[in-house]
Design brief:
Elements: E1 6-8, E2 14-16, H1 29-56, H2 64-67, H3 75-90, H4 97-102, H5 104-129, H6 136-161, H7 165-179, H8 181-194, H9 199-209, H10 212-224
Bound molecules: protoporphyrin IX containing FE.
Residues 47-48, 51, 54, 62-63, 66, 69, 77, 80-81, 84-85, 87-88, 121, 125, 128-129, 132-134, 142, 145-146, 149, 178-179, 181-182, 211 line the site of protoporphyrin IX containing FE.
Transmembrane segments: 35-59, 79-99, 111-131, 137-159, 171-190, 202-222
Protein name: DUF2306 domain-containing protein
InterPro entries: DUF2306_membrane
Length: 231
């Protein structure tokens, strides 16, 4: 029987494990993954840049529909925008395998920024959620999304502390899928309004649809990789 090949895990540690052929590394999958990563990154950076723009301009340009959020202090929404925006800018680079392998220190540094930003941004999102002007269904949708985002991020953090890199990677994919809800929300909302729906009509649905399908796609993705530590 041939010896099990040696490979490096995401921490850069060389291990001897059986390599699971997921098929994800073969062309045309590789090309599809690059296109997927590129599109995801452009969209994330665009929405992250939008959040940074709001911070840099003193929150003057926060849309009226959202600036009416009834949380007792504007600090809740502002903290959310600043921290969540940072997490959206940091996130995409964590999925770059060459960065993880060749520059593990960069992966750890950017990862720490993502985790702190997600924990602060998610906590603020949870606090302001029920104060949305969009009603209870929207509020509960955002609150559930915030709790799911925090849970996935904390479980991923605990996993990496225990050096369970596979679990860490999987929970981070789930965490990122929820963070990416900031992008899908900003695709669905204008899309629905362009189709003739009113903001108030669609907002409660979008508050759920922006993150639940993302999480389901992440789950399919994680399952498809059949136990390999790299995607
Ligand atoms: C991680 C990336 C995220 C970014 C960059 C982001 C950014 C923003 C921004 C800029 C606003 C102000 C509204 C606007 O200008 O469009 C906002 C509002 C809000 N976000 Fe996020 N967000 C992110 C993720 C999330 C997540 C995962 C949740 C929870 C599911 C969430 C919940 C909320 C809530 C509750 C509001 C206030 C909505 C209202 O009052 O109607 N955000 N976010």
């Amino acid at each position: 029987m041939p010896a099990a090949p040696r490979r490096r895990n995401i921490a850069g540690v060389t291990t001897t494990t059986a390599v699971v052929d997921t098929g994800l590394d073969r062309p045309p999958h590789r090309l599809a993954r690059r296109i997927g990563w590129g599109s995801m990154t452009v969209l994330s950076l665009a929405v992250g840049a939008y959040a940074i723009f709001l911070v840099a301009t003193g929150f003057r340009f926060v849309p009226a529909s959202v600036s009416g959020n009834g949380f007792p202090t504007a600090l809740g929404l502002r903290t959310h925008i600043a921290a969540a925006g940072l997490s959206l800018v940091a996130g995409p680079f964590q999925f770059l395998r060459p960065l993880r392998r060749r520059f593990p220190v960069a992966h750890h540094g950017i990862g720490a920024v993502y985790i702190v930003a997600a924990l602060v941004g998610g906590t603020a999102a949870g606090l302001i959620a029920l104060f949305t002007t969009g009603g209870t269904v929207a509020g509960v949708g955002f609150l559930a999304g915030a709790v799911a985002w925090l849970t996935c991020t904390i479980v991923a953090l605990v996993a990496v502390k225990r050096r369970d890199f596979l679990a860490h990677q999987r929970w981070m994919i789930r965490s990122w899928a929820i963070a990416f809800g900031a992008v899908t929300l900003r695709l669905y909302l204008p899309g629905a309004m362009a189709a003739g729906f009113e903001f108030a009509q669609v907002y409660p649905y979008v508050a759920w649809l922006c993150w639940v399908p993302n999480l389901l796609v992440a789950q399919l993705f994680v399952r498809r990789a059949r136990g390999a530590a790299d995607f």
